[in-house]
Specification:
- There is one protein chain.
- This protein is an alpha/beta fold.
- The protein folds into 3 domains: 285 residues, FAD/NAD(P)-binding domain (3-Layer(bba) Sandwich), CATH 3.50.50.60; 102 residues, Alpha-Beta Complex (Flavocytochrome C3, Chain A, domain 1), CATH 3.90.700.10; 79 residues, Fumarate reductase/succinate dehydrogenase flavoprotein-like, C-terminal domain (Methane Monooxygenase Hydroxylase, Chain G, domain 1, Up-down Bundle).
- 32% of the residues lie in helices and 17% in strands.
- The protein has a 5-stranded parallel β-sheet with strand order 6-2-1-10-17, with helices on both faces. Strands 9-8-7-19 form a 4-stranded antiparallel β-sheet. A 4-stranded antiparallel β-sheet has the order 12-15-14-13.
- It is globular, with a radius of gyration of 21 Å.
- The structure holds succinic acid.
- Succinic acid binds next to loops.
């Protein structure tokens, strides 16, 4: 039996990679159980694809570039948007039951930054969960994949400058060295390092931290996207998302007196790009204004269209059909990450990255809504096909292990999350970033999360202009960005 490809992470990107790598043996290592702790499971919006009458791949490309403040890699954006219709078809072929109208046509939703209705969804606002369920079932049935739950990757192993395996701790606490023909990081983002996040607690940047510890190149680390509307629950770090699709269906952001928050700030109002809306909500909250999403006029059956939001709100005593929902921005998506080429190769031979942990430049400075599940599936399939035919060179020399080392103690980690939220949130300044950087450098001997925060803060300090999701209150926006004051 040949040496397996090791895939770390069982979200949509990891699963798509695993399927496409057939028939090479794959070991899929999942930190939690069955991918349930991945951000994919929580993705509500859906998957963007130019499938509607009058829509086009070019229009999808234009919206992606505009949302990304033209910091995107245009060729990769073109490739991704052109793939989207085929990705939807492939997923449907795998068994994903996308929502359709009475005539069997795909229902297309609208989200912020999109000039057309082009979001396909499944189970209403439970699209990520639907994709994950279907792909996980396929992977579990695939004879070339060995799936292991409860496994923490502690280190990357290198020999002769090439990644040749991983060191892991298994569910029963045992340590194991696994040899690999290639290691794929599909570990998701780092939203959980912020005090308020729509991500699950496991989205804490471990994959990125592992890659940096081993010497891989990272890119665009300053670009963290803040979703404008998470359910505002006090004293909770991981917050339920209140999907942007609700604004696409007519919900509006208002203050406690019912006055619209966005009128006049930006032409599409409530459907302005995500960074614009997030800054507006953040600023209003800072000014002591209570921000509510008034979805009481959204038509249709909520149990079909928005079951996830409905359940999350009802669980906290809010019926969104009759009562506006209190919302807050929350760290949502990392545009930056491990630098990869179009196929997912990192700068370290033998190491690959896919999905949110990777930065291929496709999202630029701010991801367009519903382009992330698309990226995970499209890039996962492309990478998997490459790995299926991989013939790695023999490796020689001393083996060395590059690990995360200790993590921060819980109280310190909580302090770091608060620090990042205030200094590196939707509105940033050199003074606040510098203070936070200084503090994190002081903590960096205590745990890997502090070292990762240092890398993010240093990148944010280096970029002196406002661009996309990186908004510096002390700097003028770059000219190529259509500047909208918060
Ligand atoms: C949402 O449903 O608002 C989020 C979708 C996304 O992150 O693309």
């Amino acid at each position: 039996m040949s040496v397996p490809v090791v895939i770390v992470g069982a979200g949509v990107a990891g699963l798509a990679t695993a399927l496409a790598a057939a028939s090479r043996p794959v070991r899929l290592l999942c930190r939690g159980v069955a991918g349930a702790g991945s951000a994919s499971a929580l993705a509500q919006g859906g998957l963007a694809a130019a499938l509607g009458d009058g829509d086009s791949v070019e229009a999808h490309v234009a919206d992606t570039l505009a949302a990304g403040a033209f910091h995107n890699d245009a060729a990769r954006v073109r490739w991704l948007c052109a793939q989207a219709p085929a990705v939807v078809e492939w997923l449907a072929g795998q068994g994903v039951e996308f929502d359709r109208d009475g005539a069997g046509r795909l229902q297309l939703g609208r989200e912020g930054g999109h000039g057309a209705a082009r979001i396909v969804h499944a189970g209403g606002d439970a699209s990520g969960a639907a994709l994950l369920r279907t792909l996980a079932a396929r992977v579990r049935a695939a004879p070339h994949v060995c799936w292991q739950d409860g496994v923490e990757v502690e280190a990357l192993r290198l020999r002769g400058g090439r990644v040749c395996g991983v060191r892991v701790r298994t569910a029963d606490g045992a340590r194991e060295d696994i040899d690999a023909a290639a290691v794929v990081l599909a570990t998701g983002g780092l939203g959980a390092l912020f005090a308020r996040s729509s991500n699950p607690p496991g989205a804490d940047g471990t994959g990125l931290a592992l890659a940096l510890a081993a010497g891989a190149r990272a890119r665009d680390l300053e670009f963290v996207q803040f979703h404008p509307t998470a359910l505002d629950l006090p004293d909770r770090a991981s917050l339920p998302l209140v999907t942007e699709a609700l604004r696409g269906a007519g919900a509006r952001l208002v203050d406690a007196a019912g006055r619209p928050l966005l009128d006049g700030a930006h032409a599409p109002g409530d459907l302005a790009p995500r960074d614009v809306v997030a800054r507006r909500v953040w600023q209003a909250l800072r000014d002591g204004v209570r921000v509510l999403l008034d979805a009481t006029r959204v038509a249709g059956d909520w149990t079909q269209r928005f079951p996830t939001v409905l359940a999350a709100c009802l669980a906290h005593g809010i019926d969104p059909r009759t009562t506006p929902i209190p919302v807050t921005p929350a760290a949502h998506f990392h545009m930056g990450g491990v630098a990869v080429d179009a196929d997912g190769r990192t700068s370290l031979p033998g190491l690959y990255a896919v999905g949110e942990v990777a930065c291929s430049g496709v999202h630029g400075a701010n991801r367009l809504a519903s382009n992330s599940l698309l990226e995970g599936v499209a890039c996962g399939r492309r990478l998997g096909a490459l790995l299926a035919d991989l013939s790695p060179p023999p490796v020689h020399g001393e083996e060395c292990c590059h690990g995360l080392g200790a993590g921060l103690a819980p109280a310190r980690l909580a302090a770091l999350r608060t620090l990042l939220w205030h200094a590196a949130g939707p509105l940033r300044s050199a003074a606040a970033l510098r203070r936070a950087l200084h503090t994190c450098i002081g903590w960096s001997g205590e745990g890997w999360q502090a070292r990762l925060a240092v890398a993010v803060l240093a990148a944010a300090l280096r970029r002196r202009d406002s661009l996309g999701a990186h908004w510096r209150v002390d700097a003028a926006p770059m000219r190529r960005h259509a500047a909208i004051a918060p």
